[in-house]
Amino acid sequence: MNETMDVDALLKLGKRTLRANADNLSWTGNLHNEAFDLLEMALGHYPVQGEVPSAATRRKFQRLIERRASGEPQPYILGWCEFGPLKMKVKQGGFVPRTTSEFLSQQAARRIARRRRPVAVDLATGVGPVALLVKKLVGDAQVYGADISRSAIAQARANAKDLGLDVTFRVGDLFAPLPGALCGEIDVITMHPPYVGAEIVEDLPAEIKDYEPPESLTDGSNDGLGLVRRVVAEGRNWLRSDGWLMFEVEPPIARPVRTLLTRGGYTDVKSTTDPELPITRVVIGRKP
Predict the structure, then answer these.
(1) Given the DSSP bridges, would you call strands 167-171 and 277-286 parallel, antiparallel or unpaired?
(2) CB–CB of 98/281 below 8 Å?
(3) Is the domain of 110 the same as that of 177?
(4) Does the global pTM surpass 0.85?
(5) Would you say 264 and 250 are in contact if contact means Cβ atoms under 8 Å apart?
(6) Is 210 helix (H, G, I), strand (E, B) or coil?
(7) Which pLDDT score, from 0 to 100, does residue 31 have?
(8) Does the pLDDT value for residue 116 go beyond 80?
(9) Residues 62 and 98 in one domain
(10) Which end of the chain offers a freer environment for a tag, N or C, measured as fewer CB atoms within 10 Å?
(11) Are residues 239 and 176 in the same domain?
């Protein structure tokens, strides 16, 4: 890198490098924003137009860009990501929160906001984004998050502490770690399941398959619906009458999930779509 390169020139170089390695990335973010955030990290402060960084800073920025270009997720490099109004810490061992999951949180919060002392449970919670945003939106809700990953739950607990949100996170398989007293008392159960079929995990971008926890991508079933089937079957015992079960899925499997809910005895089954992110599908069903 030229010793006279200012921050604008560095940003352009960073964007070109990322664009040249697009095959490694799923492009969930904006090229300029990604390069900008990495430059801010290298500088240790907000970039000032015309500023000429030191040689050490330029080298640090180059290393950060190379890490991103190799496929390492941006949040792992930065150590954080934004999730609605929340700034979430995340590192390897935790599933990177998806912007699409904000809609899942909103759908859950809307349905319990007027209930008396509502209870919400988020399964496969990862580093806790959905559970924490539900608590942020519905302050009087009792909220739990569960995940089989100890690393993810440790990160979720740290996020809850940093954000000052009273959410209980527990390690375990689906409903197993929840207090028995919650059985039949839950108002809403949310889940962003690992719905990628076992045979197509290798087709995912390197950014996802090479870095994020395998158990957060697939449940090992060929159709990716193994855990959904279990939650549909077990969820009715945990939900109170008029309680909701919600799954965030990709559009191609929304119909099979609706079918599972209908056959499982749930009513008011439908697929809801985020008007701002049409790729999002939250399939919902209500326990009669």
Answers:
(1) unpaired
(2) no
(3) yes
(4) yes
(5) no
(6) coil
(7) 83
(8) yes
(9) no
(10) C
(11) yes
Tell me if 132 sits within 8 A of 86, measured CB to CB.
yes
> Could you tell me the two tokens for 266?
């749930």
Note whether 194 and 221 are within 8 A (CB).
no
pLDDT band at 138 (very low <50, low <70, confident <90, very high): very high
Range of the domain at 226: 92-286
- Round to whole Å and give the CA distance between 261 and 236: 10
Residue 28 has pLDDT above 60, yes or no: no
- Whose tokens are 């604008």? That residue is 8
Quote the radius of gyration of the chain (alpha carbons, Å): 21
CA pseudo-torsion sign 257, 172, 91, 129: positive
Predicted local confidence at residue 27, as pLDDT: 55
147, 49: one domain: no
Q: Does residue 2 belong to any structural domain of this protein?
A: no
Do 224 and 103 sit in the same domain of this protein?
yes
How far is it, in rounded angstroms, from Cα 108 to Cα 118? 11
77 in a structural domain: no
Cα within 13 Å of Cα(265), Cβ side? 13
Residues 65, 102, single domain; the answer is no
Question: What DSSP letter does each residue of 192-204 carry, written as one string?
Answer: ---BS-GGGGGGS
Confidence of residue 219 (pLDDT cuts 50, 70, 90): confident
Eight-class DSSP state of 288? -
d(CA 50, CA 62): 18
Structural domain includes residue 78 = no
